[in-house]
Design brief:
- This protein has 415 residues and is α+β, with helices and mostly antiparallel strands.
- The chain folds into two domains: 3-166, Creatinase/prolidase N-terminal domain (Creatine Amidinohydrolase, Chain A, domain 1, 3-Layer(aba) Sandwich); 168-413, Alpha-Beta Complex (Creatine Amidinohydrolase), CATH 3.90.230.10.
- Helices cover 37% and strands 17% of the residues.
- The strands form five sheets. The chain has a six-stranded mixed beta sheet, sandwiched between helices. Strands 7-8-11 form a three-stranded antiparallel beta sheet, with helices on one face.
- Bound molecules: glycine (GLY) and manganese (II) ion (2 copies).
């Protein structure tokens, strides 16, 4: 399926007399004359497949038919001298499938004409907000500006409209995620080859990222988490600045992106190539939950139910190990959810109560974090929900303790 098909799905789901306005976004300033790496707005990407800044997409649905336009920056010889070739209209049209491509200088007059001539009642902007006190996103600022000019229209949330569409991945999207998972597999195998006590956490991170970049990765799904010992007990530790001690575990939560789609994998490795019996005991309990989730994940089940299952398995295991007295106390050692949707974003469009359907891609990531023993273990796989169950997309990334030990020993002995 193509980006054109993504748009068609959206047009089918919104009422007549609607206008969609989606901006790619603008580069965000850091300090002096520097900017953060540009991240395209996910809704804009989903609808166009384009990843460049300063672009905009508009579509009006009136009288049952849709008029769509894409706006790109006009090539500027001076800018091209500094930062390279800018895409031409033909290229933007070829990627997105939008036939009517204009320059951004024509945006105001084009939109003004639509608003003047059509009976637009609903205007869709990406209004998603994560934290209450976050700076407003560029799309939200533009929505405010637009509403000030046209106070009579109803502002609608493009993010909300795209969530049910984005949840179901088409074949092209699944192919990208498969490729992202495979690059991540190669990155992790490289880490297992070189990992040894005394290495720094950032060196393990560098080895992973080196291999992914060597294989052509342009972006990562999120900042690589590389935490050893107690640091592995901090769920989103990204400082990565401690030495990996002999006898400790290294928890690596990471993922390459491919075609702007994420992989999201966690593996927990023994620094010296061998798990201690105690580490193995905890590891195998986490692995039991990981396998049970993959077994249970199927259409009709909710993410909440998968998490309840995880809590029960981990809780009962912790009671057997004598760490807690009733399974309901599991929150002492397991503090997050087991699944989230994966796609353009690592935590992709989903709502916790949603019912899984074929085409969803979700994580399967139970973990246990036992500070007093400096044991932090998470095992995270990516699952594609199928008609009857699920496919573990990351099945080739080894996870059994004996497989990991054998792989690491083989590398050490040079065979
Ligand atoms: N890496 C973030 C997560 O697993 O949810
Ligand atoms: Mn993860
Ligand atoms: Mn995850």
């Amino acid at each position: 399926m193509s980006f054109e098909e993504h748009r068609k799905r959206l047009y089918r789901s919104i009422p007549d007399n609607s206008l969609i306005i989606s901006y790619a976004g603008v580069p965000l300033h850091t300090n002096e004359d520097d900017y953060y790496n540009f991240e395209v707005n996910s809704q804009f990407f989903y609808l166009t497949g384009l990843e460049r800044e300063n672009m905009a997409f508009a579509a009006a649905k009136t009288g049952g038919s849709v008029t769509e336009m894409l706006f790109i920056e006009e090539a500027d010889a001076l800018m091209e001298r500094w930062t390279g070739k800018m895409p031409a209209k033909e290229e933007a049209s070829a990627v997105s499938g939008v036939k009517d491509v204009r320059y951004t200088s024509e945006f105001d007059s084009s939109l003004g004409r639509i608003m003047g001539r059509c009976l637009i009642e609903n205007v869709y902007f990406d209004l998603y907000r994560c934290g209450l006190n976050d700076l407003p996103d560029y799309n939200a600022l533009k929505a405010d500006e637009f509403a000030g000019k046209y106070p009579g229209v109803k502002l609608c949330d493009l993010h909300r409209a795209c969530v049910p569409l984005r949840e179901i991945k088409d074949e092209d999207e699944i192919a990208c995620i498969r490729k992202a998972v495979d690059i991540t597999r190669q990155g992790l195998e490289h880490v297992m080859k070189v990992l040894k006590p005394g290495m720094m956490e950032y060196q393990a991170q560098a080895e992973f990222e080196y291999m992914c970049r060597y294989l052509g990765t342009k972006k990562f799904s999120f900042n690589t988490i590389s935490g050893s010992g107690l640091n592995g007990c901090m769920m989103h530790y990204v400082t990565n600045h401690c030495e990996i001690k002999d006898g400790s575990l290294l928890l690596m939560d990471l993922g390459a992106k491919y075609g702007n789609y994420c992989s999201d994998i966690t593996r927990t490795y023994p620094a010296n190539g061998r798990y201690t019996p105690r580490q193995k005991e905890i590891y195998n309990l986490v692995l039991k939950a990981n396998k049970a989730v993959a077994e249970a994940a199927r259409p009709g089940v909710t993410l909440r139910e998968l998490n309840d299952l995880t809590r029960k398995i981990l809780g009962e295991g912790l009671v057997e190990l004598g760490l807690i007295s009733s399974w309901q106390q599991v929150g002492k050692y397991y503090m997050h959810g087991v699944s989230h949707a994966i796609g353009i974003d690592c935590h992709d469009a989903d709502f916790a109560g949603d019912i899984l359907k074929p085409g969803w891609v979700i994580s399967d990531e139970p973990g246990l974090y036992i500070d007093e023993e400096e044991i932090g273990i998470r095992i995270e796989d990516d699952l594609l929900i199928t008609e009857n169950g699920c496919e573990v997309l990351s099945r080739d990334i080894i996870r059994e303790t004996d497989e990991i030990e054998a792989f690491m020993q083989k590398m050490k002995s040079g065979n």
